[in-house]
Amino acid sequence: MRSKSEIEAVAPSHDETRQLLLEAAGEVFAEAGFRNATVREICRRAGANIAAVNYHFGDKEQLYSEVLRYSHGKMLEKYPALLGLPAEAPPEKKLHAFVLSLLLRIFDTGPTSWHGRLMAREMIEPTAALDSLVEERIRPMSIQLGQIVGEILNRPPTDEGVRMCAFSVVSQCTFYKHCSPVMERLFPKQPDMDPVAIGHIADHVTKFSLAALKSFVEKKR
Amino acid sequence: MRSKSEIEAVAPSHDETRQLLLEAAGEVFAEAGFRNATVREICRRAGANIAAVNYHFGDKEQLYSEVLRYSHGKMLEKYPALLGLPAEAPPEKKLHAFVLSLLLRIFDTGPTSWHGRLMAREMIEPTAALDSLVEERIRPMSIQLGQIVGEILNRPPTDEGVRMCAFSVVSQCTFYKHCSPVMERLFPKQPDMDPVAIGHIADHVTKFSLAALKSFVEKKR
DNA sequence: TGACGTGTCAAACAAATGTTTGAATCTTGT
DNA sequence: ACAAGATTCAAACATTTGTTTGACACGTCA
């Protein structure tokens, strides 16, 4: 009769294989993208048999869908959209919280550090999963940012100018992940994206954006 | 004895096969990315035999390298970095020209319309070609933007604050391509990226950025 | 005309990949 | 202990892909 730890080391049991596959798939999909990720590599990392993907998820595509859903859920759990700020907080504070939480999600370290990279890939090469992801996760965030910007500009969130400004804000956040291979080559001495650096960028993006937004308010009076 | 146009319709000649491969490869690589693009599809579109890629370019990877070099060169030819503005022009005008030319390159229509998409892909999934592309093309542009921003802020281009602000400017431009699948789903009624829309975005990005930059000047005195 | 170099071709090759299959093993409940 | 369902396994399958190969066609030059 082997001890519990020996059993775990030898063979995963119950829903554990499913979870191991999810985690391993996240990594591999982030590194290689959907098409280039191989079921064999995912199963190798998960310590599972090749047929496990079909058994637990149906096929590779459904595994991918599950991974997207899972990772986005995990990230929003860890870093809620406004990091716990109440709706009545000043819009400037809310903008900073929105920016910081987005950056934290993108540059998360630890078991789900592949999230940011996976999202960046999905943007460039959308799969069938993007439709539901946009509706479930991205649109709510887009609406929220629109409300914050609209509050600062004292305009409805659906206003064209509000929308353009919201794009100007969110683009500054996503940039650091999308262009990181170029950035690493342009500025090899830039420090790692640790929480201090992330906070610094969030401060800059907020400051830059607020200054710009304030000028849009003045112009419109 | 067939006429000239009949010969062209039947079989490409001289360096024409090489050129057809370059163009077709640009399209396919932009659509599918380097790894997923197949030599068979490229040759099918070019009307060439499978072995032509190895004959003219050595292998798939060298073809890709050539395509990147070719397309970037074509774009800079068509839309020079400052669209012909002299170095003594006001920095505000130079900033607008930089932004507009970058957007025009990214959203070019016509035979090399795949350029923007190809560049977005290369950012996310760098190949060996990115190193030389960064040195030959991207770094000069980065230096130029640093100079423009430095001129506005009255600081050296290598200043940390100048660099952060330059990122804030360029990120607003690349965003529209990187996130276009999401944007199409969030706002399905947005108009196409015609020259009018591109000009509108360039105006907005310049205005937003100038307002922000002006506030950085004031703070530093 | 013959030699040489360039360019094209179809077939072959070796490797990789997601999915399927039937057998074996494990787990749970009676 | 046995039955039933769940889970895992190795092998097989069918398809795809970049590269190679040797033959052929074409153009140029002495």
What keyword list fits this structure?
homodimer, 221 residues, mainly alpha, Arc Repressor Mutant, subunit A, Tetracycline Repressor, domain 2, 2 domains, 11 helices, 74% helix, 0% strand, elongated, disordered N terminus, DNA-binding
Topology, pairings included?
2 copies of one chain form a homodimer.
Chain A: H1 4-10, H2 16-36, H3 39-46, H4 52-57, H5 60-78, H6 91-106, H7 115-124, H8 129-153, H9 160-178, H10 180-186, H11 195-220
Helix pairs in contact in A: 2-3, 2-5, 2-7, 6-8, 6-9, 6-11, 8-9, 9-11
Chain A binds a DNA duplex (30 and 30 nucleotides) through residues 11, 13-14, 17, 38-40, 48-56, 59-60.
In CATH, the homologous superfamily of the largest domain in chain A goes by the name: Tetracycline Repressor, domain 2
Please provide the count of β strands of chain A.
Answer: 0
If you average the pLDDT of chain A, what whole number results? Answer: 89
Overall number of domains of chain A: 2
Biggest interface, chains and residue tallies = A-B, 45 and 44 residues
| Level-2 CATH architecture of the largest domain in chain A | Orthogonal Bundle
Estimate the strand proportion of chain A.
under 5%
Description of the molecule:
The structure is a homodimer of 221-residue chains. With 221 residues, the first copy, chain A, is an all-alpha fold. Helices cover 74% and strands 0% of the residues of chain A. Chain A has eleven helices and no strands. Chain A has helices at residues 4-10, 16-36, 39-46, 52-57, 60-78, 91-106, 115-124, 129-153, 160-178, 180-186, 195-220. In chain A, helix 9 (160-178) packs antiparallel against helix 11 (195-220). Chain A starts with a helix and ends with a helix. Chain A binds chain B through residues 33, 35-36, 120-121, 123-126, 130-131, 134-135, 138-139, 142, 163-165, 167-168, 170-172, 174-176, 178-179, 181-182, 185-187, 201, 204-205, 207-209, 211-212, 214-216, and chain B through 33, 35-36, 120-121, 123-126, 130-131, 134, 138-139, 142, 163-165, 167-168, 170-172, 174-176, 178-179, 181-182, 185-187, 201, 204-205, 207-209, 211-212, 214-216. Chain A binds a DNA duplex (30 and 30 nucleotides) through residues 11, 13-14, 17, 38-40, 48-56, 59-60.
